[in-house]
Amino acid sequence: MLSPARRVAAGIAVLLAAQLMLGAAVAAAAETTTATTTAAVTAAATTTVAAAETAAATATPAARSSVTLELTGPDPAALRALALSHGVSHRARLRRLLALLPTPAQRAAVSRVLAGEGLQVTGGTAFSVVASGAPRSVLAAFPSRTASPGSRPAPGLVLPAALHGLVTAAVGAGETGPVAFPRFTPTPVDGPTARAVYDAPSGASPAGDPAHPTVATLQLSGWNDADFTSYAAGAGLPDPVASGQYTAISVDGASPSTPDGTGGEQEVALDQESLLDTAPSAGQRAYFAPNTNRGYLDALNAVATDAADTRHTTPTT
How many CB atoms lie within 10 A of CB 70? Predict the structure, then answer.
C-alpha cells in the first residue's frame, strides 16, 4: 500500500481518468452512432447473461469451475491516453471509449478457443469473458504459474497460445489469497496542496459541459461511511453520503460496511477523504470487492462496464 502522500497522488491519477471510468449519461438521441453502438453492446451483454443462466441451470455447481479472461482492447495505448486526458466533454470521451471496446469478432475468436478446450462462455462484461467447465478442463487449459522454491506464485493463470493477443490475463475462481495489505505512514498532504503540486483538476465540469466528473475507486475492505460524513463536516463541505455524491457498489457480494479486520477500512477512508479534499466537486463511486485476484479483476470490469454504459447516471455536486 502507498503512503498517504503517494496515495493522494494515486487518487489524483484516478481523478485524471475519472471521466473515462465513469462518464456522465448521454441522451439516447444526442448521438445516433453512439446509441447504436451502445445498443449492440447491451444486446451482447443480455445474450451473455441468458447463456450464463442456461448453463447454470444445466450444471451442478460442485462439478464446474470457472475462469475470468480480461480481453485485450484493440488499442491499449489509445485507451491509456484517453484515461489520462482531461478537459474532454463527456460525449466526446464516451464516443472514443466505445470505439476502444473489444470487438464482437474478438469475442467470437475467444469463444472458439474456449470451446476447443471443452469450456463454454457463461458471462462477462464489456472488457471480460467468464468461461466454465469441468475442473480438469479448466486446469488443463489454464494451468497455474509455477514459482521458484521459496517464492510466492505469480498471480493469474497461464494463457493458451491461441489466446495471446486476444486476452491479457486470466484469473481462476480458486485464487483466494489477498492481493493487497494496509500500510500507512504519517505524512499528510491536503487537497489544495495536492492540486497545486500535481496540477490536478478540482472535479469541476469542463467548459461547456454541465455534468461533473466522477471518480471510481476500488476498495478491498468495507468501512463506516458515517466517518465520511464527519470528515466532510470538519472540512466545511456538504455531506457526500446524504447528497449522493458518494455511492457504494458491491462486487461479488462484498459488503461496503464490513471492515476486513486488518485495518483496511483506514485505507478506504484515506482514499475517499483524500479525493473529497482534492476534488470537492467530483462524484465518487467506490467499488467494494473481495480481496482476491478474482475480486479485484471483477471490480475493474464493473467500473469499465459502467463507463461504457450511456444509461448510467453520474451523481453531480
Answer: 20
